[in-house]
Amino acid sequence: MPLVVRPASAGELARAEELVTSSINDLTVRHGFGPIATSRSPDFQVFCLQDDPRGVWLAEENGEIVGFALSWVCGRLWFLAELFVAPGRQGQGIGNELLDRTMQHASESGATEKSLITFAFNVVSQGLYVRHGLFPRVPIHLCSAERESLVPHVQDSALRATPIQSTAADLEMLRQLDVATLGVSREKHHRYLLRDPRMKGVFLEDGGERVGYAYIAATGHIGPLAVMHAHAMPEAFRAALAMAVAGNAKKISVFVPGMSEALAIAASHSMRFALPMVLMSTRDYGDWTRYLPRNPGFM
């Protein structure tokens, strides 16, 4: 049977994520980084499908999933969360077919800005994205360290952490922070994170003023993190590190944009620069001195 590109269903997302995992590991092994991805429940993918099914696509051949694409929209921003083709099937036009479908999602949604985060060494995919008008803008580094190695570096923060609640007032504060840093509201994504029992979301306060927010996962991963003003980033990042280290995770990790002051702190704490990524977009948007992404799919 010929290749078929069609909308995905919820029951197919677990298999699609298995393809994503194998594709990522095939790529990172070939570039000397070893396997980095493990299979996970497709919770965020299911959320995106339920929120807007126009952004979720499968490429199928003879009943086998050979490609998968996922995009989401917030306001004027369209974001390509995942686009992966099965190992051994790259270079056959499957990625381009999937990207065309997700670009239709951007057009139908009225998005005026398009963006994604991909591996900095994945030059083939970058070429595909550039041909569609997305250009490399911001280097992003995955930084990681064993929790025990960070303990001597972590100090009490001057910022006070208070839990984020799903109230109208707290969601409005989150909206203000996101609009200030990214230019768009991400209320639906905050609602998703706040429902996750494995995530701890806090406001960071300085003298009673909320200067930012941070999420820390039970796995020890930090992000997203945003601050109203760039000068608050160092102390906000130190506060998030302290909360992550206070947990039970063996490893602490975070994605840090190359121009963020948090990167110098990560380096001074001997965090390893484990994986180079790059944000690509149709034009510059957001202030990446004030925002740390959660991961390449969530942003």
If you had to describe this structure to a student in words, what would you say it looks like?
The protein contains nine helices and 13 strands. A hairpin with a 3-residue loop joins strand 9 and strand 10 (221-227). Strands 1, 2, 3, 4, 5, 6, 7, 8, 9, 10, 11, 12 and 13 form a 13-stranded mixed beta sheet that branches. It is globular and about 65 Å long. The mean pLDDT is 96. The longest helix is centred in the N-terminal third of the chain and has 18 residues, at 13-30. 33% of the residues lie in helices and 32% in strands. The protein has 299 residues and is an alpha+beta fold. It folds into two domains: 4-111, Gcn5-related N-acetyltransferase (GNAT) (Aminopeptidase); 143-292, Aminopeptidase, CATH 3.40.630.90.
Uncertain segments are none
Helix content: 25-40%
List the helices and strands in order.
Answer: EHHEEEHEHEHEHHEEEHEHEE
Query: How many strand units?
Result: 13
- Mean of pLDDT: 96
Q: Structural class of the secondary structure composition? A: alpha+beta
Question: For the report, how would you describe the main beta sheet?
Answer: 13 strands, mixed
What's the end-to-end separation, in Å?
36 Å
Overall CATH class of the largest domain:
Alpha Beta
Specify the number of helices: 9
Percentage beta strand? 25-35%
